[in-house]
Specification:
Elements: E1 2-7, E2 13-19, E3 22-29, H1 35-49, E4 59-65, H2 69-86, E5 90-94, H3 95-100, E6 109-118, E7 121-129, E8 134-136, E9 141-144, H4 145-155, E10 159-162, H5 166-173, E11 179-181, H6 191-203, H7 222-232
Parallel strand pairs: 1-4, 4-5, 6-10, 10-11
Antiparallel strand pairs: 1-2, 2-3, 6-7, 7-8, 7-9
Helix pairs in contact: 1-2
Domain Gcp-like: 34-200
InterPro entries: ATPase_NBD (IPR043129), Gcp-like_dom (IPR000905), T6A_TsaB (IPR022496)
Keywords: Transferase
Length: 238
């Protein structure tokens, strides 16, 4: 089973090809270029360097959110377009769960995958990770760092932070004595984690066609939030 996976939910972008649970290739870029500039060339390069034709791919996978609204849209649109053009099944996975898969192979660990959602909030979820699997402990959600800290203190167990919000949360929650940063090499979003999360979903039968694939947003884009707030306050929406 060959899975072509991508992630463009944050500043970095990556593409990976996994075959029978083996990572065949992974390209990762975080050099300031836009995803519209890097994503499709990376996909083409992964296929070219692994001597893989699009017809040899069995499944397409994408981190469908949460994340940057623009990044999520670009990634989902790319996989949706490929799925429709090639008539291939696809899988949309949680960005947060995909990051937890980066830590598989370690001793049993509680992982908090966290992304900076701006406006003093983070996208966050807890997972139990061991040598072979990832078990979800809560749904993906948008919450304040303060609320996250209260939950960690209440659980009173060590937590490993992954994601582009990990450093931010570490600064705010270090005083709890319960949080630590994941190693830098496996701290951020990677398409290889998307591929591993997708394989789990495939075995569970959670497979989509291109028309069914949708981005996952945990809150409205800022422009829509401001418009909604203006309407609720009785202001002119224009």
């Amino acid at each position: 089973m060959r899975i072509l996976a991508i992630d463009s939910t944050a500043v970095s972008a990556s593409c990976a090809l996994m075959e029978e649970q083996k990572l065949t290739a992974e390209f990762y870029m975080n050099c300031g270029l836009t995803h519209s500039e890097t994503l499709m060339p990376m996909i083409n390069d992964v296929l070219r360097y692994t001597d893989t034709t699009p017809q040899e791919i069995d499944y397409l996978a994408v981190a469908a959110g949460p994340g940057s609204f623009t990044g999520v849209r670009i990634g989902v649109a790319a996989i949706k377009g490929m799925a429709l053009a090639l008539d291939l099944p696809c899988v949309g996975v949680s960005t947060l769960e995909a990051m937890a898969w980066n830590l598989v192979g370690r001793e049993k660990t509680t992982v908090c995958a966290v992304m900076d959602a701006r406006c003093k909030q983070v996208y966050q979820a807890f997972f139990e990770v061991d040598e072979t699997s990832v078990t979800r402990r809560c749904e993906d959600r948008a919450t304040s760092i303060e609320q996250l800290g209260q939950e960690i203190v209440k659980a009173n167990e060590p937590v490993m932070l992954v994601g582009d919000g990990a450093q931010l949360c570490m600064q705010e929650l270090k005083s709890t004595g319960l949080v630590q940063l994941a190693p830098l090499a496996i701290r951020y979003q990677r398409a290889s984690g998307v591929a591993q999360a997708a394989e789990k979903e495939i075995h569970l039968g959670n497979i989509l066609n291109g028309d069914q694939l949708r981005p996952v947003y945990l809150r409205l884009p800022q422009a829509e939030r401001e418009l909604k707030k203006k309407i609720q306050s009785g202001g002119d929406p224009v």
